[in-house]
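Action item from last meeting closed. Structure (321 res):
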């Protein structure tokens, strides 16, 4: 029995044989030997998925840096007075070279004047899954059963808590349809709330698989998925700890958290819309490079094209000065 299975069995024994999906995901992703705790290759052609930061010529970081400076200047602030900090950095793969980085497990301490950036931080946090069945919202649990020296995993439903029901009704009132599935990460919400509650001023730029509540309310199968060797899947109990488990965060929830903590100029745009609006000079510089197939031009197209990363990824931004 490997370390992941031992943790799952121990957790299930403490809770009568089954655990909330969020606990299951937490163990699979961050437990001893979990997906994000192992030394496995996760990002790149020989990993499980690509990210904007993993692209070879680092155009994404250039666009983020240019956008941050543009936004601050438009509000009459001097970008040189703010320090870039990346939270959730993956190893040495930084958005902007030599930026101060906060990685998994680091205490979050931010300079008083800060440009806080992240890429796919919130979708990497454990999340809960819900299903509307028999006229009510239910939370997905995972049964963990030992049988003939094997560990059997299967999903079951338990009534959702009043707090979760209230949250669902607030953001997804149209989703109360038989069989509809939803994902919400209380863990990601708590992390974002903590970040916003700290005493700092400046700009927040988070890139992720954000979707607006209205969009999620049109996706009855939910957004939860696995990634392994660049293949998307939906069997969450297959090979625990060996694949990424992720979802699409609801941008409305995180915008409201930022608003609660006195951030303003809050919005969520696609890569394409955000960078065209706020990084136009940098885009023009890259387009002006010689050679129709220059590598940095091709990378720019990959980031902006709606058929590639331009629409799949969104940027949530918020300002507090």
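Sequence:
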């Amino acid at each position: 029995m490997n370390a992941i299975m031992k943790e799952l069995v121990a957790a299930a024994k403490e809770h009568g044989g089954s655990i909330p999906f969020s606990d299951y995901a937490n163990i699979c992703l961050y437990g001893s030997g979990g997906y994000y705790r192992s030394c496995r290759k996760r990002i790149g052609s020989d990993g499980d998925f690509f990210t904007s930061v993993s692209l070879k010529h680092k155009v994404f970081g250039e666009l983020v840096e240019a956008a941050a400076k543009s936004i601050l200047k438009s509000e009459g602030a001097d970008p040189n007075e703010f320090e870039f900090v990346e939270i959730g950095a993956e190893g040495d793969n930084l958005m902007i070279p030599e930026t101060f980085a906060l990685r998994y497990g680091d205490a979050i301490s931010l300079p008083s004047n800060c440009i806080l950036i992240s890429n796919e931080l919130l979708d990497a946090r454990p999340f809960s899954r819900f299903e509307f069945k028999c006229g009510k919202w239910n939370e997905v649990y995972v049964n963990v059963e030992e049988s003939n020296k094997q560990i059997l995993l299967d999903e079951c439903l338990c009534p959702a808590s009043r707090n979760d029901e209230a949250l669902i009704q607030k953001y997804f009132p149209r989703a109360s349809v038989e069989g509809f599935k939803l994902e919400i990460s209380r863990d990601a919400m708590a992390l974002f709330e903590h970040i916003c509650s700290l005493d700092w001023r400046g700009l927040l730029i988070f890139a992720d698989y954000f979707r607006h509540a209205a969009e999620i309310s049109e996706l009855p199968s939910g957004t939860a998925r696995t990634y392994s060797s660049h293949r998307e899947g939906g069997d969450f109990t297959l090979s625990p700890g060996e694949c990424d488990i992720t979802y699409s965060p609801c941008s409305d929830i995180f915008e409201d958290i930022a608003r609660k903590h006195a951030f303003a100029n809050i919005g969520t745009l696609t890569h394409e819309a955000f960078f065209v609006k706020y990084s136009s000079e940098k885009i023009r510089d890259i387009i002006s490079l010689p050679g129709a197939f220059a590598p940095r031009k091709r990378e720019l197209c990959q980031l902006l094209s709606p058929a590639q990363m331009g629409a799949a990824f969104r940027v949530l931004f918020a300002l507090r000065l």
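Note appended to the action item: The first helix runs from residue 3 to 14.
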